[in-house]
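In this section we walk through a basic example: taking a raw amino acid sequence and producing a predicted 3D structure, encoded as discrete structure tokens. The instruction is simple. Fold the sequence below.
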Amino acid sequence: MPKKRGVKPLAQNKKARHDFFIEDVLECGMELCGTEVKSLRKGACNLKDSYAQVKNGELFLIGMHISPYEQGNIYNRDPFRTRRLLAHKSEIRKLAVASQQDGMSLVPLSIYLKDGRVKLELAVAKGKKLYDKRHSIAERDAEREMERRFKEDRE
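The resulting token sequence is shown next.
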């Protein structure tokens, strides 16, 4: 059977864009077992409160929840287990340096299937303060109001 081509989104971390300024984005693979992949294909995962960390030159994703596969029986793994992310050494070194800077962290933005393989979009992000969040909300509301006005003018 030929591989399916294209990108199919599985889950997004919408809270990440609200809570962080996104500095840089990297696509990386994940080391998963078979039942986890089947569960992901059903969309049974949650990226909320998850983060990545560099340990001993390897990149790990901590706190991501993948629900157990119903027909998995004994092959199911712990839903919150730490998963290794697959990236080039040079990219991991860059991420390690970036995450060591004050206020920076590695946050997953989305997980998706690309050509039949599970990929994770990882961001180097800086936390927002409360006033930054208010400013973002105000900008979004102003943009919606402008769109609404333009739409009324056209009619």
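Looking at the output, two observations stand out. Helices lie at 14-19, 34-41, 89-100, 130-154. The CA atoms of residues 20 and 116 lie 30 Å apart. In the next section we compare this with other chains.
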